[in-house]
């Protein structure tokens, strides 16, 4: 299957295998599943993984890993007939332990008919770099039937970050500072750490056979803070908080958010537009007609040496992460789902090679304007806190929107919220319209996917 494609499943009793090739320097990896109602889990119990191997409904069971002939598989059994009515998606993910998926060769997901053993779908995920977790595929309901979609969405925040994005509560036990000297000569045994509030994530040490394993304390104890900056015992290290850009506060430095190296993943997700085709029936109910939009995330770039260009699906100009322009478009999505949507990746290790990057989105088909579209843009640096903002309501017939302008200022990359809808002149393409509005000065020719 190609990334983003979908297929019906032949039965409700399915076996899912996530596999890869083992070898020197290849990190371990683990499969997991999340049962979603809308875009989030209903509770931490909807997360099925090695420390919580079976869902209460019996719809998903984690079987564990098997190694043979240099190949590793991690398997789950999915019974779609037992998925509760409130659940509309079962997301299938993999997480790397002790490395990145750029070090994991031959990563794939395969769906088999459990009764007959025949392969119903297979997706080979390629092009991984610094990701430590991947959503490889998902089962989803469509008009009363189940389908499988090949996703291939990477995360640089590991299993913990992936789980948190879907609403899982993951917390580390809080460790107090050095204890006060005890009066008796023989110190009493240390009290066990407090329990986690959600499913525990695996650490590099092998987990015991009990149900949940808390994350371990740091190897070296933290030095106590000076009295003028003392914090309560047990507080976690301070990390930059997520920044939401608004009209009043439209810009932020990525360096101040900790985003100075690694990759920056830019995501656009949206909700499908709903049009009402009329009223009918004795009850006067509204009959909704859903229109699937095909939006294309794009980026105009200008490098420090003066080179200019565009990264987009049209013309297969997907770019490159390790060669100029150091920007790569991950694929073409038609769902707008929060965990997939449209994504492009920027290599921050080459931040000094950028002069400016304009991220914009066009409507390829399915609508004439962005009216009634509810979209969110998220910029997630590999190291540092995410930056996000929502698009304003569109009140003009606009098929193209400038999302964010990233410029280099004083050696730092600064993100400026644009959220600017543009209306092309007759016969002028959306790309040329963006070019004119921001003075890129490029020549354009017709292209297609």
From TrEMBL:
Region annotation (Disordered) ranges: 169-236
Residue ranges with Pro residues bias: 176-197, 204-229
Residues in TerD domain copies: 2-166
Name under which the protein is recorded: TerD family protein
TM ranges: none
Source organism superkingdom: Bacteria
Pfam families: TerD (PF02342)
Record-stated family: Belongs to the CAPAB/TerDEXZ family.
């Amino acid at each position: 299957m190609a990334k983003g494609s979908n297929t019906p499943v032949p039965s409700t009793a399915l076996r899912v295998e996530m596999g890869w090739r083992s070898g020197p320097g290849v990190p371990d990896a683990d499969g997991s599943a999340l049962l979603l109602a809308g875009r989030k889990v209903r509770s931490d119990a909807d997360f099925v993984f090695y420390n919580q191997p079976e869902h209460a409904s019996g719809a998903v069971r984690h079987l564990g890993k098997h190694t043979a002939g240099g190949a590793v598989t991690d398997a789950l059994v999915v019974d779609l007939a037992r998925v509760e009515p409130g659940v509309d998606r079962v997301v299938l993910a993999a997480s790397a332990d002790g490395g990145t998926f750029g070090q994991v060769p031959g990563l794939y997901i395969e769906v088999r008919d459990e009764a007959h053993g025949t392969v119903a779908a297979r997706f080979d995920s390629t092009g991984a770099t610094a990701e430590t977790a991947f959503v490889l595929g998902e089962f989803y309901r469509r008009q009363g039937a189940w389908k499988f979609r090949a996703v291939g969405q990477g995360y640089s925040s590991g299993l913990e970050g992936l789980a948190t994005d879907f609403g899982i509560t993951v917390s580390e036990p809080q460790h107090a500072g050095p204890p006060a000297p005890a009066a008796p000569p023989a110190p009493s045994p240390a009290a066990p750490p407090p329990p986690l509030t959600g499913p525990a994530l695996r650490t590099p040490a092998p987990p015991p056979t009990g149900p949940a394993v808390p994350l371990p304390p740091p190897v070296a104890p933290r030095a106590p803070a000076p009295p003028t900056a003392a914090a309560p015992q047990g507080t976690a290290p301070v990390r930059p908080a997520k920044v939401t850009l608004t009209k009043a506060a439209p810009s932020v430095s990525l360096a101040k958010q900790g985003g100075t190296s690694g990759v920056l993943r830019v995501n656009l997700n949206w909700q499908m537009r709903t049009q009402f085709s009329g009223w009918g029936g004795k009850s006067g109910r509204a009959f909704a007609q859903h229109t699937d939009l095909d939006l294309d995330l794009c980026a105009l770039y200008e490098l420090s040496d003066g080179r200019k260009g565009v990264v987009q699906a049209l013309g297969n100009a997907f770019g490159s992460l390790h060669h100029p322009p150091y920007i790569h478009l991950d694929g073409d999505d038609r769902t707008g789902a929060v965990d997939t949507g449209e994504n492009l990746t920027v290599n921050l290790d080459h931040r000094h090679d950028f002069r400016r990057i304009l991220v914009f989105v066009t409507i390829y088909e399915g609508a004439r304007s962005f009216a009634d579209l509810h979209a969110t843009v998220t910029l997630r640096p590999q190291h540092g806190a995410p930056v996000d903002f929502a698009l304003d309501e569109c009140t003009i017939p606009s098929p193209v929107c400038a999302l964010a302008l990233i410029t280099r200022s004083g050696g730092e990359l600064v993100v400026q919220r644009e959220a600017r809808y543009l209306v092309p002149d007759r016969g002028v393409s959306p790309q040329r319209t963006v070019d004119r509005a921001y003075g890129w000065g490029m020549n354009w020719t017709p292209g297609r996917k």
